[in-house]
Amino acid sequence: MSALSPQPSSKSATHTDLQANKYIPPWTSPYIIGVAGFSGSGKTTVAQKIIEQINEPWTVLLSMDNFYKPLTPEQRELAYQNEYDFDTPEAYDLEGFYNCIISLKEGKKTQVPVYSFALHNRTGENISIYGANVIIVEGIYSLYDPKVLALMDTKIYVDTDLDICYCRRLLRDIVERKRDIEGIIEQWEKFVKPSSVASVKPTMYNADIVIPHGSDNTKAIDMIIKHIRKQLQKKSEEHLAHLAGLGRVVVPLKYDNIKVLPKTNQLLGMKSIILNRETSNDDFIFYFDRIASTLISEALELVHYSPAPYDIITPSGHRITDGVVQAQEVVAVNIIKSGDCFMRSLRKIIPEAIVGKVLIQSDSQTGEPQLHTERLPQFSPGCKVLLFDAQVISGAAATMAVKVILDHGVEESEIVLVVYLASETGLRRILNAFPNVKIVVGNLSAVEPKEGQDNDTDWWMSMRFIDARRDDGTPIFINVETDRYGLPTLSLRPMAVTLGKPDVGSPMADEQSRAVAMMSKFGCGSGRDLPISAISGTIMRAATVCDTNVAMTSTIMPNRHRTVNRAEPSSLAWIASAMVLSSPETVTAFPRARPPIASMTIVHG
C-alpha cells in the first residue's frame, strides 16, 4: 500500500480541530417547523408559501393526514355514514408520526404512509424521503404531542375564525374529496367544531408564533420566512466550517487504507496524453478507460473470495480442485457527473454490476456541497460498494457521498472509493471523517512541495477542469480552483484565453470580447473568484459569453428543455438533475433566436 506524506507540515499542525473527527451532513440536523391550526385555517397554504419563499429544494412537507390510524371494517362503515370522529387526537397514529420525524432527524431513509380519504384507509403505498434539510410538519395536532414539540425549531399556529374555516372546509371537501354537502355539515357540527374548540385551540399556547387571519397575513409570513432564512444561513456556515475542519490534521491517518497506482512509465505516459490539450476526444477516452480498468482491478483486490464449492473442469478435461469464487456482491455508485467516466471499463470487467447514482453539487453562492438526488439500489448485507469519482480535490462531495451510502446500511469498511486524481488535502478530509474507508487512487499529490512530484499547489492538483470542444474542434478548459475552505470555486480569470483564438472578425472573436467585458462588469477581471459548481460553471460560462439567458438542451434527453437564467441556482440544479442518467453527457448552449455557439461534451469535472 502506498502512503501519503507521513509527517504534516508545521503550518498544518497549527490548525488542528479536535472536534473534526466525524462528518455531520446537513440532513442529520434538519430545521423542523411545526404548523398547526383549525381544519380549513390555511395551514397548508402557509406551509406552501414558506416552501416557495425559502427556496430550499431539500424541503419536505409532512402532513399529519397521512398518519390517521387504519380503520377496522366496522369503523370504516361508520366513516362512510359520517359517524366516525376523525378530529380527535385518538384518530391519529401519534407514535408513528413521532417515529417518522425522529427517523428523518437522524438522517435515515424514511417511509411515509399514504392515506386515502375516499377509501378512509391507508393505500398500502409509501413515499420514500431522504436527505431533508428542512421539514415542515403540518396538521391540526402538529403542536399537540410534547415529544414532537421537543423536536421542533419553530412552532407556528395559524389562527383563523371558525366560520371562515367552515366555508373553506365545505369547498375543499366537495371539490377535492368528492363528499356530499349534507355529510360535511353533519360532520362539522357533530365532530369537527367541538374538537377544534376543546383540543386544537389549546395547542396555540405551545406556539412560538401565532399568525392571525391565516394565509392572508402576509406581513407575519414574511417575518417568519426572514427568521427561517437566517437560521438556514447559520446552518450552512456551520456545515462549511465543519468541512474545513475535516481537512486539518488531527490524528495520524490510516495510510494503509490508501492504494496508489505505481508511477510506471506506462501510467506516466497515459497521464501525459490526458493532460495534452492537443489530444483528441477519442484518445482522451481511450487512455482514461485504460487507467480506469487498472483502478477497478486494484479495487476488486479488496473484494472477498472463497474456495469454489465445486471442482472446475477445463476444456481439455483436467480437474481443478482449488478454484475460488467471488464471495461478495459488488455494487457500483457514481458521484454524478464525473463518476460516469468509469462505467465503460466497469461494464467490461463486471458486466452484471449493479449501479447506483448520487448527484452532489456545490451551492452556486456559498460553495456548500448539497445532495440533489440519489438513486441507490437495495444493498445486500455484506456487499462491497465501489464509489467512483474522477477527481477528489476538496473531498467535500466524496465525503457526503460516503455518508449517504452509510445511511443506507452499508458498513464503512465495505466502501472503496475509486478515484483517478486526488489531492492529499481531500483524502485527509475523507479519512478524518471515515477512517475505515478504502481508497484506490491513480495519481496523488502531496501537501508539502516536493521536487519532481505533484503537489496540492500545482495547477494540475489545485484546479479541476471540464474539457469541452467547440464545433471547430478547439478545446475549451473551464478551470475550477479551491477556495480557502478547500471547496471548488470557478475561476473566470483565464476566460479570455480558454475561449481559444478565433480569427479576427469571426463571430467567436466578438463573443470573446463580450466575455472580457462581462468579466469586468462582474468584477472578475481583477482576479476575484465566483463560487460555483462544475456543471453550473459550464452553464455560467455560456451565459456570460452570450450576455443573455441561455437555452440548455440535453441531447440524451431532448424533451428536457428549459431556458436557464444566468446565475439562477434553481435552473443550474435543474439542468444537473436532468442529466443524471445521461452518458455521454453533451449539452448544447445557445442564446435565444441564435445558432449554437458551442457544443460542450463534459468529460469529467
From TrEMBL:
What are the top taxonomic ranks of the organism?
Eukaryota, Fungi, Dikarya, Ascomycota, Saccharomycotina
Would you tell me the protein name for this molecule? Uridine kinase
Q: Which Pfam families match?
A: PRK, UPRTase
Q: Which UniProt keywords apply?
A: ATP-binding, Kinase, Nucleotide-binding, Transferase
Where is coiled-coil annotated? none
Task: Output the InterPro entries linked to this UniProt entry.
Answer: P-loop_NTPase, PRK/URK, PRTase-like, PRTase_dom, Uridine_kinase-like
Name the protein family.
Answer: Belongs to the uridine kinase family.
- Catalysed reactions listed for this entry: cytidine + ATP = CMP + ADP + H(+); uridine + ATP = UMP + ADP + H(+)
Instruction: Name the Gene3D superfamilies for this protein.
Output: 3.40.50.2020, P-loop containing nucleotide triphosphate hydrolases
Organism annotation? Ogataea polymorpha
Q: In which pathway does it act?
A: Pyrimidine metabolism; UMP biosynthesis via salvage pathway; UMP from uridine: step 1/1; Pyrimidine metabolism; CTP biosynthesis via salvage pathway; CTP from cytidine: step 1/3
Enumerate the NCBIfam families for this protein: PRK05480.1, udk
Q: List the molecular function annotations (GO) for this entry.
A: ATP binding; uridine kinase activity
Q: Specify the Phosphoribosyltransferase domain's residue ranges.
A: 262-444
The domain of life for this entry's organism is Eukaryota
Q: Which EC numbers does the record give?
A: 2.7.1.48
Q: Identify which top EC class this enzyme belongs to.
A: transferase
One biological process GO term for this chain?
pyrimidine-containing compound salvage
